[in-house]
Protein backbone atom coordinates (compact mmCIF):
# COMPACT_ATOMS: atom_id res chain seq x y z
CA UNK A 1 0.00 0.00 0.00
CA UNK A 2 1.63 3.26 -1.05
CA UNK A 3 0.66 6.26 1.02
CA UNK A 4 2.32 8.56 3.50
CA UNK A 5 2.39 6.09 6.39
CA UNK A 6 4.46 3.65 4.32
CA UNK A 7 6.94 6.33 3.28
CA UNK A 8 7.40 7.33 6.90
CA UNK A 9 8.13 3.71 7.76
CA UNK A 10 10.80 3.51 5.05
CA UNK A 11 12.42 6.71 6.31
CA UNK A 12 12.50 5.32 9.84
CA UNK A 13 14.00 2.06 8.62
CA UNK A 14 16.63 4.03 6.73
CA UNK A 15 17.38 6.06 9.83
CA UNK A 16 18.25 2.87 11.72
CA UNK A 17 19.81 1.16 8.67
CA UNK A 18 23.32 0.03 7.95
CA UNK A 19 24.30 3.22 6.09
CA UNK A 20 25.22 4.89 9.36
CA UNK A 21 27.92 2.31 10.28
CA UNK A 22 31.27 3.91 9.66
CA UNK A 23 32.86 0.66 8.57
CA UNK A 24 30.21 0.20 5.89
CA UNK A 25 29.18 -3.21 7.16
CA UNK A 26 25.51 -4.13 7.31
CA UNK A 27 24.13 -5.09 10.75
CA UNK A 28 22.44 -8.42 11.22
CA UNK A 29 18.73 -8.55 10.40
CA UNK A 30 16.34 -7.23 13.04
CA UNK A 31 19.20 -5.78 15.16
CA UNK A 32 18.83 -2.02 15.72
CA UNK A 33 21.77 0.17 14.71
CA UNK A 34 22.30 1.35 18.27
CA UNK A 35 23.21 -2.23 19.24
CA UNK A 36 25.62 -2.85 16.37
CA UNK A 37 27.49 0.46 16.26
CA UNK A 38 27.38 1.73 19.83
CA UNK A 39 31.05 1.04 20.46
CA UNK A 40 32.39 2.39 17.15
CA UNK A 41 34.54 5.49 17.60
CA UNK A 42 34.83 8.42 15.19
CA UNK A 43 37.85 8.85 12.91
CA UNK A 44 39.59 12.07 11.97
CA UNK A 45 38.09 12.08 8.50
CA UNK A 46 34.56 11.05 9.52
CA UNK A 47 31.66 13.27 8.51
CA UNK A 48 29.41 11.68 11.10
CA UNK A 49 30.02 10.62 14.65
CA UNK A 50 28.33 7.85 16.55
CA UNK A 51 27.83 9.57 19.86
CA UNK A 52 25.97 7.09 22.08
CA UNK A 53 23.28 9.70 22.68
CA UNK A 54 22.75 10.83 19.06
CA UNK A 55 23.48 8.24 16.40
CA UNK A 56 23.98 9.27 12.77
CA UNK A 57 24.45 12.96 13.54
CA UNK A 58 26.41 14.87 10.91
CA UNK A 59 28.98 17.52 11.77
CA UNK A 60 28.28 21.13 10.82
CA UNK A 61 30.00 24.46 11.26
CA UNK A 62 26.66 26.32 11.19
CA UNK A 63 25.21 27.34 14.55
CA UNK A 64 21.50 27.06 13.86
CA UNK A 65 18.93 26.38 16.52
CA UNK A 66 15.94 24.38 15.39
CA UNK A 67 12.93 26.69 15.43
CA UNK A 68 9.76 24.54 15.52
CA UNK A 69 7.59 27.47 14.50
CA UNK A 70 9.50 27.68 11.23
CA UNK A 71 9.04 23.99 10.38
CA UNK A 72 6.18 22.65 8.31
CA UNK A 73 3.41 21.07 10.36
CA UNK A 74 2.98 17.31 10.16
CA UNK A 75 0.30 16.67 7.50
CA UNK A 76 -3.06 15.06 8.29
CA UNK A 77 -3.85 11.90 6.35
CA UNK A 78 -7.33 11.49 4.88
CA UNK A 79 -9.07 9.26 2.35
CA UNK A 80 -12.42 11.04 2.08
CA UNK A 81 -13.16 14.76 2.14
CA UNK A 82 -15.95 16.40 4.13
CA UNK A 83 -18.40 15.93 1.27
CA UNK A 84 -18.05 12.14 1.35
CA UNK A 85 -15.94 12.06 -1.82
CA UNK A 86 -12.98 9.68 -2.10
CA UNK A 87 -9.82 11.63 -2.86
CA UNK A 88 -7.78 8.88 -4.54
CA UNK A 89 -10.26 6.66 -6.34
CA UNK A 90 -7.55 4.24 -7.49
CA UNK A 91 -6.71 3.31 -3.90
CA UNK A 92 -10.34 3.38 -2.76
CA UNK A 93 -11.52 2.76 0.79
CA UNK A 94 -10.55 -0.86 1.65
CA UNK A 95 -14.02 -1.36 3.16
CA UNK A 96 -16.82 -3.52 1.82
CA UNK A 97 -20.23 -1.89 1.45
CA UNK A 98 -21.92 -4.11 4.05
CA UNK A 99 -19.13 -3.46 6.50
CA UNK A 100 -19.43 0.29 5.96
CA UNK A 101 -23.18 0.11 6.63
CA UNK A 102 -22.61 -1.81 9.87
CA UNK A 103 -20.00 0.69 11.01
CA UNK A 104 -22.42 3.50 10.24
CA UNK A 105 -25.16 1.80 12.27
CA UNK A 106 -22.80 1.43 15.23
CA UNK A 107 -21.86 5.11 15.07
CA UNK A 108 -25.54 6.08 15.03
CA UNK A 109 -26.23 3.71 17.93
CA UNK A 110 -23.43 5.30 19.95
CA UNK A 111 -24.74 8.78 19.12
CA UNK A 112 -28.31 7.91 20.12
CA UNK A 113 -27.16 6.26 23.34
CA UNK A 114 -25.07 9.31 24.22
CA UNK A 115 -27.99 11.66 23.66
CA UNK A 116 -30.42 9.60 25.75
CA UNK A 117 -27.96 8.97 28.58
CA UNK A 118 -27.06 12.65 28.74
CA UNK A 119 -30.75 13.47 29.12
CA UNK A 120 -31.15 10.72 31.73
CA UNK A 121 -28.38 12.26 33.81
CA UNK A 122 -30.03 15.66 33.59
CA UNK A 123 -33.22 14.00 34.85
CA UNK A 124 -31.36 12.62 37.85
CA UNK A 125 -31.65 8.98 36.79
CA UNK A 126 -27.89 8.64 36.28
CA UNK A 127 -25.18 10.21 38.39
CA UNK A 128 -22.63 10.85 35.62
CA UNK A 129 -22.05 10.38 31.90
CA UNK A 130 -19.61 11.32 29.12
CA UNK A 131 -20.54 11.60 25.43
CA UNK A 132 -18.47 10.86 22.33
CA UNK A 133 -20.07 13.40 19.99
CA UNK A 134 -17.68 14.25 17.17
CA UNK A 135 -15.33 11.36 17.99
CA UNK A 136 -17.41 8.32 17.08
CA UNK A 137 -15.30 7.61 14.00
CA UNK A 138 -12.06 7.33 15.98
CA UNK A 139 -13.17 4.67 18.43
CA UNK A 140 -15.42 2.64 16.13
CA UNK A 141 -13.21 2.99 13.07
CA UNK A 142 -10.02 1.92 14.82
CA UNK A 143 -11.69 -0.94 16.70
CA UNK A 144 -13.08 -2.29 13.43
CA UNK A 145 -9.54 -2.59 12.04
CA UNK A 146 -8.06 -4.45 15.03
CA UNK A 147 -8.06 -8.19 15.75
CA UNK A 148 -10.48 -9.29 18.52
CA UNK A 149 -7.54 -10.78 20.44
CA UNK A 150 -5.67 -7.47 20.56
CA UNK A 151 -5.62 -6.02 24.08
CA UNK A 152 -7.23 -2.59 24.43
CA UNK A 153 -6.66 0.08 27.07
CA UNK A 154 -9.24 2.86 26.91
CA UNK A 155 -9.65 6.21 28.61
CA UNK A 156 -13.26 7.32 29.12
CA UNK A 157 -14.53 8.33 25.69
CA UNK A 158 -14.10 4.97 23.97
CA UNK A 159 -17.58 3.49 24.31
CA UNK A 160 -17.36 2.94 20.55
CA UNK A 161 -14.49 0.48 21.02
CA UNK A 162 -16.67 -1.59 23.33
CA UNK A 163 -19.66 -1.33 21.01
CA UNK A 164 -17.69 -2.37 17.95
CA UNK A 165 -16.20 -5.35 19.79
CA UNK A 166 -19.58 -6.68 20.88
CA UNK A 167 -20.41 -4.95 24.17
CA UNK A 168 -24.21 -5.04 24.36
CA UNK A 169 -26.52 -2.17 25.28
CA UNK A 170 -27.47 -4.14 28.39
CA UNK A 171 -23.78 -4.25 29.37
CA UNK A 172 -23.54 -0.46 29.08
CA UNK A 173 -26.71 0.12 31.07
CA UNK A 174 -25.87 -2.36 33.82
CA UNK A 175 -22.56 -0.58 34.37
CA UNK A 176 -24.13 2.88 34.32
CA UNK A 177 -26.61 1.83 37.02
CA UNK A 178 -24.01 -0.25 38.91
CA UNK A 179 -26.62 -2.98 39.35
CA UNK A 180 -26.18 -6.66 40.20
CA UNK A 181 -25.44 -7.52 36.55
CA UNK A 182 -22.60 -5.01 36.28
CA UNK A 183 -19.28 -6.66 35.40
CA UNK A 184 -17.60 -4.43 37.98
CA UNK A 185 -20.12 -5.34 40.72
CA UNK A 186 -20.90 -1.67 41.33
CA UNK A 187 -17.35 -0.76 42.32
CA UNK A 188 -16.72 1.84 39.63
CA UNK A 189 -18.31 5.13 38.68
CA UNK A 190 -20.39 5.32 35.47
CA UNK A 191 -18.75 4.99 32.00
CA UNK A 192 -15.85 3.03 33.49
CA UNK A 193 -16.54 -0.10 31.48
CA UNK A 194 -14.44 -3.23 31.30
CA UNK A 195 -14.66 -6.63 29.60
CA UNK A 196 -12.28 -9.53 30.07
CA UNK A 197 -14.10 -11.47 27.34
CA UNK A 198 -13.53 -8.67 24.82
CA UNK A 199 -9.89 -8.13 25.89
CA UNK A 200 -10.55 -4.57 27.09
CA UNK A 201 -9.11 -3.50 30.42
CA UNK A 202 -11.39 -1.66 32.81
CA UNK A 203 -11.29 2.11 32.47
CA UNK A 204 -9.67 4.06 35.30
CA UNK A 205 -10.52 7.60 36.36
CA UNK A 206 -6.87 8.42 36.99
CA UNK A 207 -5.72 10.23 33.90
CA UNK A 208 -3.12 8.57 31.65
CA UNK A 209 -2.41 5.56 33.88
CA UNK A 210 -3.52 3.25 31.07
CA UNK A 211 -0.64 4.41 28.84
CA UNK A 212 2.25 2.81 30.77
CA UNK A 213 -0.03 -0.17 31.45
CA UNK A 214 -0.40 -0.63 27.70
CA UNK A 215 3.35 -0.39 27.16
CA UNK A 216 3.93 -3.06 29.80
CA UNK A 217 1.22 -5.30 28.40
CA UNK A 218 2.71 -4.91 24.92
CA UNK A 219 6.06 -6.07 26.26
CA UNK A 220 4.35 -9.20 27.62
CA UNK A 221 2.61 -9.70 24.27
CA UNK A 222 5.97 -9.42 22.54
CA UNK A 223 7.27 -12.30 24.64
CA UNK A 224 4.12 -14.34 23.94
CA UNK A 225 4.35 -13.65 20.21
CA UNK A 226 7.95 -14.85 20.18
CA UNK A 227 7.11 -17.99 22.16
CA UNK A 228 4.05 -18.81 20.03
CA UNK A 229 4.94 -17.81 16.45
CA UNK A 230 2.26 -20.06 14.95
CA UNK A 231 -0.59 -18.40 16.86
CA UNK A 232 -2.30 -15.10 16.08
CA UNK A 233 0.18 -12.33 16.78
CA UNK A 234 -1.30 -9.76 19.16
CA UNK A 235 -0.73 -6.08 19.83
CA UNK A 236 -1.77 -3.72 22.59
CA UNK A 237 -3.70 -0.59 21.65
CA UNK A 238 -3.98 2.41 23.94
CA UNK A 239 -6.45 5.30 23.67
CA UNK A 240 -6.01 8.67 25.36
CA UNK A 241 -6.77 12.34 24.83
CA UNK A 242 -4.30 15.08 24.07
CA UNK A 243 -4.78 16.34 27.62
CA UNK A 244 -3.53 13.01 28.99
CA UNK A 245 -0.42 13.46 26.87
CA UNK A 246 0.55 16.26 29.26
CA UNK A 247 0.93 13.73 32.06
CA UNK A 248 4.29 12.22 32.89
CA UNK A 249 2.86 8.75 32.34
CA UNK A 250 2.59 9.49 28.63
CA UNK A 251 6.27 10.31 28.25
CA UNK A 252 7.43 7.39 30.39
CA UNK A 253 5.24 4.99 28.43
CA UNK A 254 6.36 6.11 24.99
CA UNK A 255 10.00 6.03 26.00
CA UNK A 256 9.86 2.50 27.42
CA UNK A 257 7.82 1.35 24.42
CA UNK A 258 10.44 2.76 22.05
CA UNK A 259 13.48 1.42 23.87
CA UNK A 260 11.93 -2.03 24.36
CA UNK A 261 10.41 -2.05 20.85
CA UNK A 262 7.01 -3.34 21.94
CA UNK A 263 4.01 -4.00 19.64
CA UNK A 264 1.79 -1.18 20.86
CA UNK A 265 -0.43 1.26 18.96
CA UNK A 266 -0.88 4.53 20.82
CA UNK A 267 -4.01 6.34 19.59
CA UNK A 268 -4.36 9.94 20.72
CA UNK A 269 -7.73 11.62 20.33
CA UNK A 270 -6.85 15.26 19.84
CA UNK A 271 -10.27 16.87 20.15
CA UNK A 272 -9.06 20.37 20.91
CA UNK A 273 -9.86 20.53 24.63
CA UNK A 274 -8.64 18.90 27.84
CA UNK A 275 -11.67 19.49 30.09
CA UNK A 276 -11.70 23.31 30.05
CA UNK A 277 -8.23 23.84 28.59
CA UNK A 278 -7.83 24.44 24.84
CA UNK A 279 -4.79 23.03 23.06
CA UNK A 280 -3.35 26.54 22.76
CA UNK A 281 -2.84 26.48 26.53
CA UNK A 282 -1.63 22.87 26.61
CA UNK A 283 1.38 22.89 24.33
CA UNK A 284 3.33 24.96 21.80
CA UNK A 285 4.65 22.10 19.68
CA UNK A 286 3.07 20.55 16.60
CA UNK A 287 0.36 18.60 18.35
CA UNK A 288 1.06 15.19 19.85
CA UNK A 289 2.42 13.58 16.67
CA UNK A 290 5.66 15.54 16.95
CA UNK A 291 6.32 13.88 20.30
CA UNK A 292 6.13 10.42 18.78
CA UNK A 293 8.85 11.33 16.30
CA UNK A 294 10.89 12.73 19.19
CA UNK A 295 10.81 9.37 20.92
CA UNK A 296 11.83 7.54 17.76
CA UNK A 297 8.37 6.09 17.16
CA UNK A 298 6.69 5.66 13.77
CA UNK A 299 4.06 8.40 13.73
CA UNK A 300 1.06 9.47 11.68
CA UNK A 301 -1.58 12.19 11.98
CA UNK A 302 -5.05 11.27 10.72
CA UNK A 303 -8.35 13.03 10.07
CA UNK A 304 -10.52 11.49 12.79
CA UNK A 305 -13.70 12.51 10.97
CA UNK A 306 -12.72 10.24 8.07
CA UNK A 307 -13.71 6.69 9.01
CA UNK A 308 -11.83 5.21 6.07
CA UNK A 309 -8.60 7.02 6.93
CA UNK A 310 -8.93 5.87 10.55
CA UNK A 311 -9.44 2.27 9.50
CA UNK A 312 -6.61 2.20 6.97
CA UNK A 313 -4.18 3.91 9.34
CA UNK A 314 -5.01 1.45 12.12
CA UNK A 315 -4.63 -1.56 9.82
CA UNK A 316 -1.22 -0.45 8.61
CA UNK A 317 -0.20 0.56 12.13
CA UNK A 318 -1.00 -2.94 13.35
CA UNK A 319 1.12 -4.48 10.59
CA UNK A 320 3.95 -2.10 11.41
CA UNK A 321 3.66 -2.79 15.15
CA UNK A 322 4.29 -6.49 14.50
CA UNK A 323 7.26 -5.92 12.20
CA UNK A 324 10.67 -7.25 13.25
CA UNK A 325 9.39 -8.64 16.51
CA UNK A 326 7.48 -5.53 17.43
CA UNK A 327 7.67 -1.75 17.49
CA UNK A 328 5.42 1.02 18.83
CA UNK A 329 3.33 3.28 16.63
CA UNK A 330 1.67 6.59 17.47
CA UNK A 331 -1.40 7.83 15.63
CA UNK A 332 -2.79 11.26 16.40
CA UNK A 333 -6.47 11.30 15.44
CA UNK A 334 -7.72 14.85 14.87
CA UNK A 335 -11.30 15.69 15.87
CA UNK A 336 -13.42 18.29 17.65
CA UNK A 337 -15.18 17.62 20.95
CA UNK A 338 -18.72 18.70 20.14
CA UNK A 339 -20.19 17.82 23.54
CA UNK A 340 -19.33 19.00 27.02
CA UNK A 341 -16.39 17.26 28.67
CA UNK A 342 -18.87 15.41 30.87
CA UNK A 343 -22.26 15.98 32.50
CA UNK A 344 -20.33 17.86 35.21
CA UNK A 345 -19.07 20.41 32.69
CA UNK A 346 -20.51 23.45 30.92
CA UNK A 347 -18.20 23.98 27.97
CA UNK A 348 -19.84 27.26 27.03
CA UNK A 349 -18.08 28.80 30.01
CA UNK A 350 -14.78 28.55 28.12
CA UNK A 351 -15.75 28.46 24.42
CA UNK A 352 -18.28 30.16 22.22
CA UNK A 353 -21.53 28.36 21.39
CA UNK A 354 -21.17 29.45 17.78
CA UNK A 355 -17.87 27.57 17.58
CA UNK A 356 -19.53 24.33 18.62
CA UNK A 357 -22.52 24.83 16.31
CA UNK A 358 -20.16 25.57 13.42
CA UNK A 359 -18.35 22.26 13.92
CA UNK A 360 -21.64 20.40 14.19
CA UNK A 361 -22.80 21.86 10.92
CA UNK A 362 -19.48 21.79 9.08
CA UNK A 363 -18.23 18.25 9.54
CA UNK A 364 -18.48 15.15 11.70
CA UNK A 365 -17.74 11.44 11.11
CA UNK A 366 -21.38 10.31 10.99
CA UNK A 367 -22.61 12.76 8.37
CA UNK A 368 -19.47 12.30 6.28
CA UNK A 369 -19.92 8.52 6.09
CA UNK A 370 -23.63 8.96 5.39
CA UNK A 371 -22.80 11.19 2.41
CA UNK A 372 -20.54 8.46 1.05
CA UNK A 373 -23.22 5.80 1.54
CA UNK A 374 -25.85 7.95 -0.15
CA UNK A 375 -23.55 8.65 -3.08
CA UNK A 376 -23.41 4.89 -3.69
CA UNK A 377 -27.20 4.47 -3.26
CA UNK A 378 -26.59 2.39 -0.12
CA UNK A 379 -28.57 4.66 2.21
CA UNK A 380 -31.55 7.01 2.13
CA UNK A 381 -33.79 9.08 4.40
CA UNK A 382 -36.25 6.24 4.99
CA UNK A 383 -33.49 3.93 6.23
CA UNK A 384 -32.12 6.71 8.40
CA UNK A 385 -35.48 7.34 10.03
CA UNK A 386 -36.05 3.65 10.64
CA UNK A 387 -32.56 3.16 12.09
CA UNK A 388 -32.79 6.06 14.52
CA UNK A 389 -36.32 5.20 15.63
CA UNK A 390 -35.48 1.54 16.20
CA UNK A 391 -32.20 2.34 17.93
CA UNK A 392 -33.90 4.78 20.28
CA UNK A 393 -36.41 2.13 21.33
CA UNK A 394 -33.65 -0.43 21.78
CA UNK A 395 -31.61 1.89 24.01
CA UNK A 396 -34.60 2.89 26.12
CA UNK A 397 -35.61 -0.73 26.59
CA UNK A 398 -32.15 -1.67 27.84
CA UNK A 399 -32.10 1.43 30.04
CA UNK A 400 -35.42 0.62 31.68
CA UNK A 401 -34.48 -3.03 32.23
CA UNK A 402 -31.20 -2.09 33.91
CA UNK A 403 -32.89 0.55 36.05
CA UNK A 404 -35.19 -2.11 37.54
CA UNK A 405 -32.38 -4.45 38.60
CA UNK A 406 -31.23 -4.52 42.21
CA UNK A 407 -27.83 -3.29 43.36
CA UNK A 408 -25.04 -5.85 43.82
CA UNK A 409 -24.93 -7.78 47.10
CA UNK A 410 -23.46 -5.89 50.05
CA UNK A 411 -20.85 -8.62 50.37
CA UNK A 412 -19.12 -7.19 47.30
CA UNK A 413 -17.93 -4.26 49.41
CA UNK A 414 -15.56 -6.65 51.19
CA UNK A 415 -14.68 -9.61 48.95
CA UNK A 416 -12.05 -9.85 46.19
CA UNK A 417 -9.42 -7.93 48.16
CA UNK A 418 -7.86 -10.93 49.89
CA UNK A 419 -8.33 -14.57 48.93
CA UNK A 420 -10.04 -15.06 52.29
CA UNK A 421 -11.51 -12.43 54.59
CA UNK A 422 -9.08 -11.30 57.26
CA UNK A 423 -10.11 -11.08 60.91
CA UNK A 424 -10.14 -7.30 60.61
CA UNK A 425 -12.46 -7.47 57.60
CA UNK A 426 -14.80 -9.83 59.44
CA UNK A 427 -14.95 -7.34 62.29
CA UNK A 428 -15.87 -4.60 59.80
CA UNK A 429 -18.62 -6.79 58.32
CA UNK A 430 -20.09 -7.51 61.75
CA UNK A 431 -19.97 -3.84 62.67
CA UNK A 432 -21.69 -2.78 59.45
CA UNK A 433 -24.37 -5.45 59.86
CA UNK A 434 -25.05 -4.34 63.42
CA UNK A 435 -25.38 -0.67 62.39
CA UNK A 436 -27.80 -1.52 59.57
CA UNK A 437 -29.92 -3.66 61.92
CA UNK A 438 -29.96 -0.94 64.56
CA UNK A 439 -31.05 1.82 62.14
CA UNK A 440 -33.24 0.14 59.48
CA UNK A 441 -34.96 3.39 58.46
CA UNK A 442 -31.67 5.13 57.72
CA UNK A 443 -30.20 2.11 55.94
CA UNK A 444 -32.69 0.51 53.58
CA UNK A 445 -30.86 -2.45 52.08
CA UNK A 446 -33.80 -4.06 50.29
CA UNK A 447 -32.59 -2.56 47.04
CA UNK A 448 -29.45 -4.70 47.23
CA UNK A 449 -29.38 -8.27 46.00
CA UNK A 450 -29.98 -10.54 48.99
CA UNK A 451 -30.54 -7.61 51.34
CA UNK A 452 -28.76 -7.97 54.65
CA UNK A 453 -28.24 -11.64 53.87
CA UNK A 454 -25.15 -10.76 51.87
CA UNK A 455 -23.43 -9.66 55.08
CA UNK A 456 -24.77 -12.65 57.00
CA UNK A 457 -23.05 -14.94 54.51
CA UNK A 458 -19.69 -13.33 55.19
CA UNK A 459 -20.08 -13.36 58.97
CA UNK A 460 -21.00 -17.03 58.87
CA UNK A 461 -18.20 -17.79 56.41
CA UNK A 462 -20.42 -18.90 53.53
CA UNK A 463 -19.68 -18.62 49.77
CA UNK A 464 -16.37 -16.81 50.08
Helix percentage range? 40-55%
Low-confidence stretches: 1-29, 33-38
Largest sheet: 6 strands, parallel
Q: Which outline best applies?
A: globular
Q: What is the H-and-E element order?
A: HHEEHHEHHEHEHEEEHEHEHHHHH
Query: Approximately what portion of the residues adopt beta-strand conformation?
Result: 5-15%
CATH architecture of the largest domain: 3-Layer(aba) Sandwich
User: How do the strands of the widest beta sheet line up side by side?
Assistant: 4-3-5-6-10-9
Which class best fits the helix and strand makeup?
Answer: alpha/beta
Query: What would the CATH topology of the largest domain be?
Result: Rossmann fold
Number of helices: 15
What's the number of domains?
3
Rounded radius of gyration (Å): 26 Å
Distance between the termini: 55 Å
CATH class of the largest domain equals Alpha Beta
Count the E strands. Answer: 10
Mean of all residue-level pLDDT scores: 90
Family: Belongs to the BCKDHA family.
Domain Dehydrogenase E1 component: 105-409
Keywords: Metal-binding, Mitochondrion, Oxidoreductase, Potassium, Thiamine pyrophosphate, Transit peptide
Main location: mitochondrion
Q: What this model shows, in words?
A:
- With 464 residues, the protein is α/β, with parallel strands linked by helices.
- The chain has three domains: 61 residues, no CATH class; 307 residues, Rossmann fold (3-Layer(aba) Sandwich), CATH 3.40.50.970; 50 residues, no CATH class.
- Helix 3 packs across helix 4 and helix 3 packs across helix 13.
- The protein is globular and about 85 Å long.
- The N terminus is likely disordered.
- It is found in: Mitochondrion matrix.
- It catalyses: N(6)-[(R)-lipoyl]-L-lysyl-[protein] + 3-methyl-2-oxobutanoate + H(+) = N(6)-[(R)-S(8)-2-methylpropanoyldihydrolipoyl]-L-lysyl-[protein] + CO2.
- Belongs to the BCKDHA family.
